[in-house]
Design goal:
The protein is α+β, with helices and mostly antiparallel strands and 436 residues long. The protein is built from 14 helices and eleven strands. Helix content is 58%, strand content 14%. Helix 4 runs antiparallel to helix 5 and helix 9 crosses helix 11. The N and C termini lie far apart (134 Å).
């Protein structure tokens, strides 16, 4: 017990002597005073500059010019003004104390703290993307805190010497962390670049299939380049991936045949433009609907009742596909109707044709509405009217329904009877006597 007490007293005396030496050292007091003064000066300067910079950098409402976008972007950095200004003033003070006293540990610690505050403000106030904000909170802020405490160099040395084996490859813990950080940033840059390139491509005058192909090619090129840059920055040699790429090739050759086939079929569809987003198609298997999306593996069809059908791209290549709206071409429909045998059928084309042509969705090219005699039915004389429209007759466009309304009204106005089914019954023999 006495030995423990003596040891504790020894540690206490050592701490007391260190604290006393620090207190009576004028260099430490000067550093502390410069540190406080730098912070107070930064606060005063920031309060003066913030309103003026905000007014200068805020563009007028509704201004979307390039200069306005640059000003809005620079305005985002205002939360960093205070800690960075304090960091800069403290760095000047550190140079002064080192030149006069030959030491500057106290003010150097304060400078690192200001840098930590700048990093924390950057992550908290400037980063809006969820992935980058999570990366900043889990990696950037802890590293800045460790740097402020002065433990960053020993930590990096330990991570550099800690090796993680992975099959024929091995990575240091620092290299793995560097790869994760760089890969996350490059993935974010790739996603941002892909969004920008897609927006630019969508504004170009080209066929929808060509636009989709260009967007897919840009996406593959951007993320491929991002992957290679991330591997290079992280210090991972591409030759170390030879085994992985070989296994991937074997997997594609055996287990991923359908995926590879659908991917190639999707590229062919985009190149040929035989079917693209917005077309109404019908396949041999009975699938029918409007193409609402085309991916690398399949096309998604939306039916009249809102259901989505996922059709592999290969089916568009190896089976017969009927495209009702390729390149916005017109489609022809027909509607059948009947009139009674008492009707002067020579009047029917002049009555029904103009009534159908008057509908706003009926085209006069490539042909005007055509009324044809279709046959002599059991109950009446059968006619059919053929007409052309842009689009297809689906749940949104009730073309045939509107045409039937027009035919009914035109025949009623002309006093022509639309027959209902009739049957003639012949009775053989004497008629049965009716009961009294």
């Amino acid at each position: 017990m006495e030995n423990m007490l003596e040891t504790a007293m020894g540690y206490g005396m050592t701490a007391y002597e260190v604290a006393l030496a620090w207190i009576i050292d004028p260099a430490n007091w000067v550093q502390f005073a410069l540190l406080v003064g730098s912070y107070l000066a930064a606060v005063v300067i920031t309060r003066k500059l913030n309103p003026k910079l905000t007014q200068l950098l805020t563009p007028t409402q509704g201004n979307d010019s390039l200069l306005a976008k640059v000003r809005r972007f620079v305005l985002l950095f205002l939360p960093l003004l205070l800690p960075l200004l304090a960091f800069g003033l403290t760095a000047i003070g550190e140079q002064v104390t080192r030149s006069i006293f030959g030491s500057g540990e106290v003010i150097a610690f304060g400078k690192r703290v200001f840098l930590f505050l700048a990093v924390r403000a950057f992550v908290r106030d400037m980063l809006t993307d969820p992935m980058l904000k999570a990366l900043g909170k889990t990696v950037l802020v802890p590293l800045a805190a460790i740097y402020a405490l002065g433990f960053l160099d020993p930590l990096l040395l330990w991570m550099e010497t800690t090796i993680i084996p992975l099959g024929n490859m091995s990575f240091s813990l620092l290299g793995l962390l560097r790869f994760l950080v760089v890969a996350s940033i490059m993935f974010w840059l790739g996603r941002w670049s892909n969004d920008q390139s897609t927006a630019i491509i969508e504004k170009q005058e080209m066929r929808p299939a060509t636009r989709q192909l260009a967007a897919k090619a840009a996406e593959i090129a951007i993320f491929g380049a991002a992957f290679l840059v991330a591997m290079n920055i992280a210090g991972i040699p591409l030759t170390s991936l030879a085994v992985l790429t070989g296994a991937l090739g074997v997997g594609i050759g055996f287990g991923l045949q359908k995926i590879a086939s659908n991917f190639v079929s999707g590229v062919i569809l985009l190149l040929e433009g035989q079917a693209t987003v917005g077309d109404y198609v019908e396949l041999d298997g009975g699938e029918a609907g409007t193409i609402v999306r085309m991916t690398a593996r399949a096309a998604i069809l939306e039916t009249y009742d809102g259901k989505w059908i996922v059709v592999p791209n290969e089916d568009f290549i190896v089976t017969r596909v009927v495209n009702y709206s390729d390149s916005g071409s017109a489609n022809r429909y027909d509607v059948s109707f009947s009139v009674s045998y008492d009707t002067d059928i020579n009047r029917i084309p002049d009555i029904v044709g103009p009534a159908v042509a008057a509908l706003d969705f009926v085209l006069d090219q490539p042909e005007e509405p055509d009324v044809e005699l279709d046959g002599f039915g059991d109950s009446g004389i059968d006619f059919v009217v053929e007409f052309w429209v842009n689009g297809i007759d689906d749940g949104k466009n009730k073309y045939r329904s509107h045409v039937r309304f027009a035919i009914w009204n035109a025949l009623k106005d002309a006093g022509i009877e639309i027959p209902f089914p009739q049957r003639v019954v012949h009775l053989k023999g004497a008629a049965p006597a009716l009961p009294e």
